[in-house]
Specification:
globular, transmembrane helix, mainly alpha, single chain, Copper resistance protein CopD, CopC/D
């Protein structure tokens, strides 16, 4: 049981880390203007994505070690041989996905370190971190089916991961903006106001993709019946996850229709600190719910 909890925590850490890296990189592409990608806040985003990639490699190595121990039946990690790792990495789809993830994350780190055009840098980091995030589909139910059904399941899982990553990363990007030491300046608050007000279209697309892919995933796993929602642990966890997502949507609506317009109005009045503080508190609450959602996803992924 202790090993199951360690696996869940490890999966949660991977989901959080990879989602954050991909989402922040994407946010820098669709939310920041060309000139803004050269500002200090963009440099913080670049560092954030690079650090997420470094952590992602470390977590992936730990994850592969845990998987090797479980698959080999070894009692201790000291019993693991290089042959077991070679067999897992070269002989399974999960191992191939793991290799692609490591390469994609290493590329992301390289892009973060080397001097590039800021726009090209964030686009390239979005692609590499997006590929890395997509490989997590092979570590869950997405890899349980064969043939066309398997391709549909993987595509749905990857879409779900990307949409979730875009949401989680946007929350982190907003929090970085809202907690920046420069948040008292007119320019930084103006960026926060514009991006929070303009997130509605992207947010709507994210919610649509999450809903559509979530329905597809449920049908492929549990079948076209609602009975498992109340009769199985999987269904009960899924219902809990849906309640948390509804809470996130309620907070997002408050941000969109009350707090963001209030922040925009404060730009003219000069009373920015209070408006930023209220938005920051709401973002922290939404981010907390996001962590709980990903924790439920990490648990759901190990259930049969």
């Amino acid at each position: 049981m202790a090993e199951d909890w360690f696996t869940i925590v490890l999966r949660l850490a991977l989901y959080l880390d990879m989602a954050a890296g991909f989402g922040v990189a994407m946010f820098s592409v669709y939310a920041l203007g060309h000139d803004e990608r050269s500002l200090a806040i963009a440099r913080r985003y670049r560092v954030c994505v690079g650090v997420c990639a470094v952590i992602g490699i470390g977590l992936s190595v730990i994850g592969m070690t845990v998987l090797a121990k479980a698959m080999s039946g070894a009692q201790t990690y000291s019993e693991l041989s290089t042959h077991i790792f070679e067999m897992l990495i070269t002989g399974t789809h999960m191992g191939l996905a793991w290799c692609i993830r490591i390469l994609a994350l290493a590329l992301c780190i390289l892009i973060a370190l080397v001097k590039f055009n800021p726009t090209f840098r964030f686009v390239a980091m979005s692609v590499s971190s997006g590929v890395a995030l997509a490989t997590l589909a092979w570590a869950g139910h997405g890899a349980m089916d064969d043939g066309m059904r398997g391709y549909i399941h993987l595509a749905s899982d990857i879409s779900h991961l990307w949409a979730a990553g875009a949401w989680v990363g946007a929350l982190l990007a907003f929090l970085i903006l809202a907690t920046s030491r420069a948040n008292a300046t007119q320019d930084t608050v103006a960026i926060l106001s514009r991006t929070s007000n303009g997130f509605a279209h992207v947010g709507t697309l994210i919610v649509f993709v999450l809903a559509a892919s979530g329905v597809v995933n449920y049908v492929l796993i549990a079948g076209p019946s609602l009975d498992p929602l109340v009769s199985t642990l999987y269904g009960q966890l899924l219902l809990g996850k849906l309640m948390l997502v509804l809470g996130m949507l309620a907070l997002a609506a408050a941000n969109r229709f009350r707090l963001s317009p209030s922040l925009e109005a404060s730009l003219g009045s000069g009373n920015r600190a209070q408006a930023v503080s209220k938005l920051r508190q709401s973002l922290f609450m939404e981010a907390t719910l996001a962590v709980l959602v990903l924790a439920s996803v990490a648990w759901l992924g190990i259930l049969s």
